[in-house]
Design a protein that fits this description.
The complex is a heterodimer. By secondary structure, chain A is mainly beta. Chain A is built from no helices and eleven strands. Chain B is 0% helix and 56% strand. In chain B, a hairpin with a 2-residue loop joins strand 6 and strand 7. Chain B is globular, with a radius of gyration of 13 Å. Classes of the chains: A mainly beta, B mainly beta.
């Protein structure tokens, strides 16, 4: 069974530029999560999708971050414009409907200069 | 909001030694997850504990959940270099909601 796929694995941009990350969850997993992990911290939830609907985006900085999951499968997270403090690893996870175990992708490491 | 505190923050052990990592929640635990993370990579699921007093083992790693103390411990027996990494505990705020994570414990195993 294929795991959660993310791309790119690494990205370096300058502040005020835009960036987008892509995630393809495990087949059949209706729930998709985006987490932000700053160096030395645990992952922090940014947004949770159930199919193509948003369940929780209370911690998403909506002035610069946006995410979509139009067809209820893969998802894109965008930052526009990026700030220095956005440097982090962005992790995507998925789970079965009602499932408790979350499966994580390899993450995208973003460096903002 | 719920917070998870992990201790110690970092740990260096000699190969073959046993070690324990603790995770304490500020609120009631509705389950507790342990993950391992290699630097800069994704999280690898280790174990999920759902009930008070529950104990699970996988290879040389054992995890326990003490609901009354709102605490979980992860014990590694006879540590090996392959055990090195960052261990993260995570807990759902309730039910199946997203996980709140601790800051992690960085484990180094030296020969």
């Amino acid at each position: 069974e294929a795991g959660v796929a993310q791309s790119p694995r690494y990205k370096i941009i300058e502040k005020r530029q835009s960036v987008a990350f892509w995630c393809n969850p495990i087949s059949g997993h209706a729930t998709l999560y985006w987490y932000q992990q700053i160096l030395g911290q645990g992952p922090k939830l940014l947004i949770q999708f159930q199919n193509n609907g948003v369940v929780d985006d209370s911690q998403l900085p909506k002035d610069r971050f946006s995410a979509e999951r139009l067809k209820g499968v893969d998802s894109t997270l965008k930052i526009q414009p990026a700030k220095l403090e956005d440097s982090a690893v962005y992790l995507c996870a998925s789970s079965l409907p009602g499932g408790r175990e979350q499966f994580f992708g390899p993450g995208t490491r973003l460096t903002v200069l | 909001s719920q917070e998870l505190e992990q201790s110690p923050q970092s740990l260096i052990v000699q190969e073959g030694k046993n070690l324990t990592i603790n995770c304490t929640s500020s609120k009631t635990l509705y389950g507790l997850y342990w993950y391992k993370q290699k630097y800069g990579e994704g999280l690898i699921f280790l174990m999920m504990l759902q009930k008070g007093g529950e104990e699970k083992s996988h290879e040389k790693i054992t995890a326990k959940l003490d609901e009354k103390k709102q605490q979980s411990s992860l014990h590694i027996t006879a540590s090996q270099p392959s055990h090195a990494g960052i261990y993260l505990c995570g807990a759902p705020k309730s039910g199946n909601t997203p996980l709140v994570f601790g800051k992690g414990t960085r484990l180094s195993v030296i020969a």
